[in-house]
Amino acid sequence: MNRFDYLRAADIPEAVRQGAGEHVAFLAGGTNLIDLMKESVERPRELVDINRLPLRDITEMPDGSLRLGALVTNADTAYDDRVASRYPLLSSAILAGASPQLRNAATNGGNLNQRTRCVYFYDVQTPCNIRSPLLGCCAFGGVYRYNAIRGSSPEWIATHPSDMCVALAALSAVVRVTGPEGDRAIPFEDYHRLPGDEPWRDNTLKPGELVTSIDLPAEGFAQNYTYLKLRDRLSYAFALVSVAVAMRLEEGRIAEVRIALGGVAHKPWRRPQAEEAMRNEQPGRQVFERASEALLEGAVGQGENDFKIPLARKAILRALSQAAAGTPQSQTDKRIA
Amino acid sequence: MDAFAKVGIGTPLPRVDGVDKVTGRARYAAEYALPDLLYGVAVPSRIAKGRITGIDDALARQVPGVVEVLTHENRPSEAWFNRSWKDELDIPGEPFKALHDEKILFAGQPVALVLAETFEAARYASTLVQVSYEEEAHNVDFQASLAEKFEPSKKRSSFQPPKNRGDAGAAFTRSEVKVDAEYHLATEHHNPMEMHATTVEWHGEGKITVYDKTQGSQGVQSFLASAFGFSKSDVRVVNAYVGGAFGSGLRPQWQVQVATLAAKHMKRSVRVVMTRQQMFTHAHRPECTMSIRLGADSSGKLNAVITDATTSTSRFEDNMEDIVIWGMMNYASPNAMGTYAIAPRDTYTSADMRAPGAATGMTLFEIAMDELAYAARVDPLELRMINYSEVDAMNGTPFTSKALREAYREGAARFGWERRSPEPRSMKEGRELIGWGMATGMWDAMFSKTSASAKLSANGHLEVACATSDIGTGTYTVMALVAADTLGLPPEQITARLGDSSLPTSPVEGGSWAAASSGAAVQLACQSVAKKLLKAADKVEGRPLGGASLDEVVFADGRITLKSDAGKSVGVIEAMRAAELAVIEEEETASSGISGLVSMARKSRNTHSAIFCEVRVDEELGQVRVTRIVNAVAAGRIINPKTARSQILGGVVMGIGMALHEETFADKKLGRWMNHNLAEYHVPAHADVEAIDVIFVDEHDPEVTPLGVKGVGEIGIVGTAAAVANAIYHATGKRIRSLPITIDRLME
Ligand SMILES: Cc1cc2nc3c(=O)[nH]c(=O)nc-3n(C[C@H](O)[C@H](O)[C@H](O)COP(=O)(O)OP(=O)(O)OC[C@H]3O[C@@H](n4cnc5c(N)ncnc54)[C@H](O)[C@@H]3O)c2cc1C
């Protein structure tokens, strides 16, 4: 193992102090970071263990929002009564991911910051732009099945693997962070970033910034929602394509809808225009088809992952009809609703 | 526990090693703690083909705790001739010799072994070794390798060449109903739970004990002695527990080579454990392409079977499997023909993986048979009955037994096959299309000369021993059961020992012959003990058995009892005491004998199975659920119904994986496997496995092997993937001829 210093932060200010500097990583559940360190993909010189920080609570806020501490585990979040009843979309998305053992260890902050699962990123004997900037990308034209359908340059091919984040995107959550320059609240759509010319940067956290919580706005879309995940086996595999839908119906019409896609891009994929266009429409095949067209506009495959485009199209249609009918996809019964 | 009073062959006995396994008492190759142990971590080759031009280990050597970096430049001497590197499987070609020279034959090949006082130091230092290469053009793409396919002149000794009959080409042309298609199976890696590992204990003066993950301790013993210049008697190999292997442990893998080299070089004990990624740098099931042409009359009766297959091998060895013979043997077509070739690529040599050849060839053939059923508009099960062959149709020999008809009947009845609606896409529930498919399985019933010992102590404790292996299959339990059956002792009084080269001779564990072979040897050894014990019983005061002969008594409940008078008996301990015996110890060898060899020449010996499968498919989204499988198996006598059932369950689950999940992806440019971990190399998860029903059909066959046992380790996977693929066709009307059937293939 690469040598590193292990520090344990006693409180948030200390974590921020310890987190400043280069080659520092915060350690939460470790289910992603430790794996990557074992593979020599990540080589932090300092590991700041944040598990003692007081970020393990789920708190109801005066404005009706629900605050999820960064260190609450994925399992505790999914099974929390308030989350399960008010934000069942989030519970469902979390339960669609990983395995019970992993969800028991993984934290909300860690989930947000997990790295891509591109097979090249994980194999240090292959060049990878994300792992070592400027080495080039092998996935482009290589084993591409799992990769993105947004954009057609090597920079754009890694996908963000999280299920939870797809739901958070649809719920328009807010990420609260603290750091050397103080506290910030980052709207979810601005938290993860598109690769641009810095494909190795997954998100907009500044050096040393620590996620303290994820705030869920009061509107939880508990009646009409779904998380539909399609993968290579019925459980315990990353999404080829996933769809989170949060919908509010009023008198049979769509008062509001949010659609986020997983497995297709560098970040959970939303198209506000597609959502806007559905407002005041009656749920139905044509409306859903228009939405899927708009969401997938400009999508391109690279051969091996071409199937993701029709798959995503059908998944969007199915997810929208599941949500509109109030028959969300179960994550325990693998039969698709 | 009344049933346990009569424990014997046929008793569903829980694994005798179960508690040791779940409590951690069972030790695996990497778990032997030794003083002064060195840890070795291999540096894998980045390139797929070429040569090493330089190794810079200066940085690695600076890491505290590192004692040596072993490479082809500083390794100790080893055998020069290829024949000294041959293992029991005897694959033609040049066996792979780790750290032997500068040649790179495949990506991930070990090019250096870093040795350190701690695992952590060795692992870290291994990342600091700088290797430079001169690269040569490589090819790991199977489709591209087909341009170089060939039929090797020197064939693997186990290879059974297809025997053609009639004029299949002409008969096919004439046939009213035809199937003519190409089928494909992806590369699969074995991925047993336990990674390959070796701990070499250095005793000094050239003596070593090698704890190795292998399916054959004595094979590894001979190999190490001849390749590395040890005297055979100075090498003891122990594989008391093996965490699965599926064939990956049939040949000595590179970890045992480098660990032994290192121990010899350092004169110290050494451990080397492969990482999961490194598990993708050796054995794998060959990729296969198979063209199948079937010709039949309008009733579905076959008159032509033509199969042409190619499987992958490496550039340095010619591995062959029996791919094309299965359909030719199983079905009564008057005309049949098969051709087979192999295609080299720049990977490690492909290897036997659970039911090698049949799992591929019979499975793909059974998809073609399903196509024929639809083409001829005959029920798929009926089609099998129409073409049923009482004899081995390829060799023209009768079977020692073949209860396949019964397997079809019992399987179909349990499944409810008669309620199937014949048309594809005709069964639906909610959004899901329902499909019912079936297939046939076939495998060899083999027997290998094996020795065993039995040692009865004065306190009534019995130890039976044989150098065979238990790779999770239940051999310990089988040996204990056969011993219990023969000497009438409760299993608690019996210890079975195996997995040690110092025990009585046994071949490598594979081919499903272990239970039949080691079981027969244990029975013989126990029978010899029984003879002596009966003599000893004669010394008991009053001679209650009155000098009865072996066939006049029964051994049960720890006693010897007269058949004619249940009131007259002698206890085992009583007999030992009366004869003043501390132990009775016997060793026997079970071999086919003259009559067995004659029978082998005249008769075919096979297991058979009938698999029925239900799938539910959400067609739009390409989601397949395998909701029900019935596998009816005809495998002769079942020694332990409990562990035998587990073997079939495991085979069926692996068959589901073959049908839907397992596939190793290569990057053609880089020449390496890319999804080399269990997150991305998919095997079925719990959610993918629903109801599996196993039936053992009655099959009385005293001729096939001494115990009438045929073996069940492999038959469970054969044909299962075809049953799944055929069910998917029935559900959706989509014929997918390339396995695994992943979402993208289903959506094409
Ligand atoms: C085999 C396997 C299968 C999986 N399958 C799925 C799946 O199907 N779907 C899915 O969504 N996920 C899946 N996961 C990923 C899993 O959800 C993540 O590993 C987990 O959420 C990471 O959380 P953690 O607390 O363990 O993070 P860590 O591993 O501790 O950290 C991950 C990253 O986040 C950073 N970090 C952690 N906390 C903070 C913080 N508070 N502020 C700033 N940075 C922080 C760390 O520095 C590190 O860079 C899988 C993982 C594995 C190993």
Polypeptide structure, described:
The complex is a heterodimer of chains A (337) and B (748). With 337 residues, chain A is α+β, with helices and mostly antiparallel strands. Chain A is built from 12 helices and 11 strands. Chain A has helices at 12-19, 33-38, 74-79, 81-86, 88-95, 100-105, 108-112, 164-170, 188-191, 272-276, 285-296, 308-325; strands at residues 5-8, 24-27, 46-49, 58-60, 66-69, 174-179, 182-187, 210-216, 224-230, 241-250, 253-262. A 5-stranded antiparallel beta sheet of chain A has the order 4-5-8-6-7. In chain A, strands 1-3-2 form a 3-stranded parallel beta sheet, covered by helices on one side. In chain A, strands 9-10-11 form a 3-stranded antiparallel beta sheet, sandwiched between helices. The longest helix of chain A is centred in the last third of the chain and has 18 residues, at 308-325. Chain A is globular, with a radius of gyration of 19 Å. Chain B has 3 domains: 18-25 and 448-590, Aldehyde Oxidoreductase, domain 4 (2-Layer Sandwich), CATH 3.30.365; 37-137 and 193-244 and 249-281, Aldehyde Oxidoreductase, domain 3 (Alpha-Beta Complex), CATH 3.90.1170; 168-187 and 284-446 and 601-747, Aldehyde Oxidoreductase, domain 4. In chain B, the strands form 9 sheets. Chain B has a 7-stranded mixed beta sheet, with helices on both faces. In chain B, strands 16-15-14-7-33 form a 5-stranded mixed beta sheet, with helices on both faces. The A-B interface holds A 1-3, 40, 117, 119-120, 122-126, 138, 141-143, 145-146, 230, 232-238, 240, 304, 307, 310-311, 314-315, 318, 334-336 and B 44, 46, 107, 120, 123-124, 127, 277, 430-432, 616, 618, 620-623, 625, 660-661, 665-670, 672, 674-677, 679-680, 682, 684-688, 742-744, 747-748. The site of flavin-adenine dinucleotide has 31 residues of chain A, from β2, α2, α6, α7 and β8. The site of flavin-adenine dinucleotide (FAD) has 31 residues of chain A, from β2, α2, α6, α7 and β8.
